């Protein structure tokens, strides 16, 4: 009997697509290929218009985005977490997994990492009979927070997303976090906040590993940074 190769689902960031994420994560992808891990990169369901961007961009650059079809996202940006709506996106990912899965794990970058965290937490209910992921790699990840009215200066997960970002205490998924020390788009402390949710919830805190790199909002490709991460992925997949 032939044993199928392990498979990982990859979710790109805001204003990217699967093809670009494949290129940006080539270091990780090539190391995984040596272990016969299959990487499936998909496009987000949201097609952005120029008015949807949270920053200014000139017409020529925007046209280049359209020409290369990187005007993709998983949800529309908002600085107010309670305004976000991910219902259609989560259904889109769940339907894709139903049709193309099962997957042994998931990898996400930035916006895609936020979605990947939710899918990781809810996979067994989103996709009936799908086992929990063996591994979840979240790069430049964040959760949907708001000021905590009970603690001045502190944050909490926005009320409408508290169940989405609540890990199951008996989960066996290995949680891996990569974040940049100089990331301006998603500061390291936001990724650390999300990592801490898992550290606090999981019975085995050793399931959570964090890797900081000196760069910004990017997927690191230097082998000294990514090799330990890929080793963790391979270990989780073969456990």
TrEMBL record:
KW Hydrolase (keyword) present: yes
Superkingdom assignment: Eukaryota
Cited InterPro entries: AB_hydrolase_fold, FSH-like_dom, LovG
UniProt entry keywords in alphabetical sequence: Hydrolase
Family annotation (Pfam families): FSH1
Organism of this sequence: Torulaspora globosa
Stretches assigned to the Serine hydrolase domain: 2-228
Lineage start: Eukaryota, Fungi, Dikarya, Ascomycota, Saccharomycotina
Gene Ontology molecular-function annotations: hydrolase activity
GO cellular component: cytoplasm; nucleus
Protein name listed in UniProt: Serine hydrolase domain-containing protein
Keyword Hydrolase belongs to the record: yes
């Amino acid at each position: 009997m032939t044993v199928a190769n392990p498979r990982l689902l990859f979710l790109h960031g805001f204003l990217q697509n699967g093809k670009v994420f494949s290129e940006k994560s080539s270091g990780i992808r090539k190391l995984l290929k040596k272990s016969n891990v299959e990487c499936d990169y998909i496009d987000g369901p949201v097609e952005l218009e120029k008015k949807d961007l949270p920053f200014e961009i000139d017409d020529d650059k925007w046209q280049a985005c359209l020409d290369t079809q990187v005007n993709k996202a998983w949800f529309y940006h908002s600085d107010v977490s309670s305004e976000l709506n991910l219902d259609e996106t989560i259904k889109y990912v769940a339907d894709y997994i139903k049709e193309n899965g099962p997957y042994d794990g998931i990898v996400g970058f930035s916006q895609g990492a936020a979605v990947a965290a939710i899918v990781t937490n809810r996979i067994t209910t989103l996709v009936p009979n799908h086992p929990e992921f063996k591994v979840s790699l979240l790069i430049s990840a964040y959760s949907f927070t708001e000021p905590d009215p009970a603690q001045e200066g502190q944050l909490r997960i926005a009320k409408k997303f508290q169940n989405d970002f609540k890990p199951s205490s008996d989960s066996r998924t290995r949680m891996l976090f990569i974040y940049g020390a100089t990331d301006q788009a998603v500061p390291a402390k936001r990724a650390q906040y999300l990592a801490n949710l898992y550290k606090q919830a999981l019975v085995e805190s050793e399931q959570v590993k964090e890797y900081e790199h000196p760069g910004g909002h990017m997927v690191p490709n230097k082998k000294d940074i990514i090799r330990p991460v890929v080793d963790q992925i391979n270990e989780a997949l073969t456990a």
